[in-house]
Amino acid sequence: MKVGVLQFFSWPGRRGELSEVYDRAIERVQIMDQNGYDAVWIAEHHFSTYSVCPSIHMMGTHFAAQTKNLRIGTGVSLAAFYNPLRLAEEVALLDVLSGGRVNWGAGRGFDPKEFSAFGVDREESYPRFRENVEIVLEAWRSEKLNYAGEYHTYEDVMVLPKPLQDPHPPVWMAASSPPAVEWAGSMGRMIMMDPHSSMEAIAEKQAMYLDAREAAGHGRELQDTPVARLLAIAPTAEAAREVAENGARWTTGSYAKGGPVGGKDPVQRYVDEVIMWGTPEAVADMILENAEAGHLNYLLCAPLSQQSFTLFNEEVLPRIM
User: Fold this and answer.
1) Given this model, what pLDDT does residue 257 score?
2) DSSP secondary structure string, 197-241?
3) What is the pLDDT of residues 201-245, one digit of tens each?
4) Positive or negative CA dihedral for 288, 27, 108, 96?
5) 117-150 pLDDT, tens per residue?
6) Angular region, 65: left φ>0, alpha ψ -120 to 50, beta rest
7) What is the CA radius of gyration of the chain?
8) Over 90: is that where the pLDDT of 261 sits?
9) 193 secondary structure, DSSP code
């Protein structure tokens, strides 16, 4: 099983200096670089203290300069908000500067504030996102780009630099909704799965994805599928539950907002169904159980506290790798 970290840059209540948030992230990726993690996946968010990292490609360059082994993942580039040529250039430049260590994850986004501020109609965001992804890939593959689409038309555009990895970095699509999962499977794209669904829901969507892949002639293979999991780890179950509850309140209050799901309070749903929480031994057992069931070949962990990351690194990681 591969292991990566989905790196957020949360700034709760704007307590402390924002620079301290970035400094802690650098310390974390340097630890990861020496401990066998596959990649750090950098989360892109805008207009919220939930995670203050509007330019993940710039942050990726910063991380690449501080590491030697760790791959630099975008988790994800919100492709619908970009000019696709600029996106192709930035990710390719990151690949060159990192020595060919980029994992490119792309997604549509779902925060209404972001769509409104960037002037992207949510109704057209799916086709715009998909077209932008195709343009990026074609720009990387072609000496000169020629493309005629619904939103963009280009003729003989030389997009430079090209990525260092040949023909380009490995590519994942963020897929949470059933239509997104089925589309990615039908196109033969690898997928990343979100930290807001239960593992039961993840398993159902993986089956949907494999059915779509197989029906389109791409084979029934899950490949490397990063599954993001919120982790709350502490020396005791009681302390871990408190971390999980605080993390659930922060997540539902600042970003993943919404009312009760299936009649259940959203904070309680996260604690009961979504977050992996407990002692290091208990969390390791949960991870291994899902790996053995075939639903977890790439753990993308999102620790809800610094202690959670430390205990994961020192006590959980040796048990699962």
Assistant:
1) 54
2) S-HHHHHHHHHHHHHHHHHTTS-S---S-EEEEEEEE-SSHHHHH
3) 999 999 999 999 999 999 999 999 999 999 999 999 999 999 999
4) negative
5) 999 999 999 999 999 999 999 999 999 999 999 9
6) alpha
7) 19
8) no
9) B
Residue 122, classed as helix, strand or coil, is: helix
Residue with tokens 């999102």: 302
Count of the separate structural domains present in the chain? 1
Q: Mind spelling out the 3-state secondary structure of 38-52? A: CEEEECCECCCCCCC
> What one-character DSSP code corresponds to residue 123?
G
Q: Which helix (H) or strand (E) holds 85?
A: helix 84-97
**Strand ranges (DSSP E) for the chain?**
2-7, 39-42, 71-74, 77-78, 102-107, 145-148, 153-157, 171-174, 190-192, 226-233, 276-278, 298-303
pTM value? 0.95
Cβ(232)–Cβ(308) below 8 Å: yes
Confidence (pLDDT) at 118: 96
CA distance 49 to 10: 6
Kindly report, residue by residue over 51-79, the tens digit of the pLDDT: 999 999 999 999 999 999 999 999 999 99
Q: Considering Cα of 280, then 242, then 21, then 87, what sign does the dihedral take?
A: positive
The structure tokens listed for 291 are 């790996």
The phi, psi pair for 214, rounded to 5°, reads -65, -40
Q: What domain range includes position 25?
A: 2-320
- Contact between 180 and 108 (Cβ < 8 Å): yes
**In whole angstroms, what is the distance from residue 305 CA to residue 222 CA?**
30
The domain that holds 116 is classified in CATH as: 3.20.20.30
Q: How far apart are CA 35 and CA 38, in angstroms?
A: 9
H helices present in 98-152, as ranges: 112-118, 125-141
Question: What six digits make up the tokens of 165?
Answer: 């990895």
